[in-house]
Amino acid sequence: MRIVNLTLFTLLVLSEASTQNIFHPELSGLLDSSNAPFYFGVASGDPQEDGVVIWSKIIPENIEPQQVSWEVALDTLMQNVVGSGSVMTDASSAFTVKVNAGGLKPGTTYFYRFKHKDTFSPIGRTKTCKTTDPDQLRFAVVSCADYQSGYFNAFGDIAQRNDLDAVIHLGDYIYEYGSWRPGRKRMLKNQYRSHIPDKECTTLKDYRTRYGQYRLDPQLKEAHRLHPFIVIWDDHEIANNASIEGPGNNRQKAEEWELRKAEARQAYFEWLPIRENPEKSIIRKFSFGNLAELWMLDGRLEGRSAQAKGINDPALQSPDRFMLGEAQTAWLLNGMKESKASWKIIGNQVIFSPLNDSKVFSRTPSIGMDRWDGYPVERQRIFDFFYENNLKDIVVITGDVHTSWAFELTSEPSNPGVYDKKTGKGVIGAEFTTPSVTSFNFDEIVPRFITWEAKRRFKKKKNNPHLRYLDLNRHGYLTLTLTKEYAQADWFYIKKRDRIDERVKKKATRYLELGGQSLEKCQPSD
Description:
Blueprint: H1 8-14, E1 42-45, E2 52-57, E3 66-73, E4 81-89, E5 96-101, E6 109-116, E7 119-120, E8 124-127, E9 136-142, H2 153-160, E10 166-169, H3 185-189, H4 204-215, H5 218-226, E11 228-231, H6 254-271, E12 284-288, E13 292-296, H7 326-338, E14 343-348, H8 376-388, E15 394-398, E16 404-409, E17 429-433, H9 448-458, E18 467-471, E19 476-483, E20 486-494, E21 504-513
Parallel strand pairs: 1-11, 9-10, 10-11, 13-14, 14-15, 15-17
Antiparallel strand pairs: 1-2, 2-5, 3-4, 3-6, 6-7, 6-8, 9-19, 12-13, 16-17, 16-18, 19-20, 20-21
Helix pairs in contact: 2-5, 4-6
C-alpha cells in the first residue's frame, strides 16, 4: 500500500514550508506505509575483526529528537543477543541511526535490528572480518548504479548469494544528474526511471533526496540488509569529473564548490554504513589475517588536481599534479611495504593501468584524462616504488568506466624491456574492472558494430599487450576470490535492465597465481 496523502511527517519535514526542510516533497510518493518508520531498511558496513557498523534511518511522526534501540544476535530469532544499546537521532542527520557494534568475534555471521517505540526494523545479516589465516575470501565488486538507466538486478542477485564476505562498492553509488539532457536520443531511449529531484543535485536537501530515492529500491535495500558493504565515492556522489578544484565543467565558484563538497560528504556519511570520522574521510584499510589487506582510496576529494586538457597540455607531465596527493600516497605505499599479507588489494575509482586509446576512436594519439593516464607522473612514482621494494601479488579493483577489463599490472606495457606478454616478465599483479550495475556502456551510446571494432582495436598487441579481458556492452558485477594459491575474478552479467529480472550468467574468469606473473584464463575453482 502506497501513501496517498501526506502524513504528519511529510507535512512537517518534506514540506517546503518546513524549517527542517530535509527532503524534497516528491520523495513522499515513494514511501510505503507498511515499512514505517524504517522506510529505508537496514544496512551494515566497514567490518573489522571485532565489530561492524550497523545503520538505519527513521521517518518519525514529528521532528523532535528520537531514541532508537539496537541489538546484535547470533541467531535469526534474535534470542542469543551479544550486544545492545540505544542512541539518539535528530533532524541534523536526517534521523540517521549509525552504531559501531563492537565486542564481536572475527569471521562470524551476526544478525541485527533496530527498534523505535514499539516497531522493529527488518532483521539484517552481517559478518566480521576473518583474521585467523582464512583459506578463502570472496567479495562482490560493484560500481556505477544509475537509477535512471534501469533496475538494479545486479544487486538483486548479490542479495541472494551466501558466499560473500562483503560487497565492495567503488563509487557512483548515486548520480547527481537530473533527467537526461535533450539531444541524447540513445540515452533517453534507455531511461527507465526518473530522478527525484528532477534537477542536478547541488545542495544537502538535493543529495539527501536522491539517496533516499535510491535506498527505496527493493533490490539495493535487500543487498544492504544481507551483506556488509565497504564503500568509497567516485565523482557522481558530488559532481561529474570532480576534483578538489571543482566539477569537470569548472562552472562553480570556489566558495560554492567548497559548500557543495561539504554537503555531499555529509549526505554520503548519513546514508552509507561507513565509520564516522571528523574529517569525513573515506580513506581506510581492512585486514583479513595474513591472506589479504585492502586499501580503500579517495581519488576525488583528497588530493586530485583538475584534469589536464589533453595530451598536448604542458600540465599533463607536471610533477605537481596528483590523483591521490602526497599524504595519501605515502600512507598507501608505506602500508603496502609493511604488509605481511599474501594479497595486497587496492580499492580504486578509475583505471590504474596504462591504456592506449590511440587509433581506437580516432587516428590521433589519445588517452583518458579522468583516469590514471591523466596523472602519469604520480602513477610512475607508485610503480617505481612497487618495483624498488619488490612488491608483487597486488590486485587493483576498479569501477567508473561502466565496462569490464582485466590487465596484467605493469608500468610499461609497450616496452618489451620491462614487460613480456609471453613470460609475464615485469608483471607485479592484476587489475580487475567491474562493469556498471546499470550506467550506460558502449552499445547504448553508439551502434553495436562500432563497439565490436573498438574492442578489436583495444586488444591489438601493439596497443595494449597487457589487456587480458574486455567487454564493452554488458552490465553486472564481478566477484574477487582470494586463496593462498590464487586471486580470481569472475564477471557476472545481468539479462535485463528494463524490468526486475535477477537472472545472471558468469561469462568470464581470470586468475593470478600467488607469486606468479601471467594472468590466466582457465578456471581453477568455482
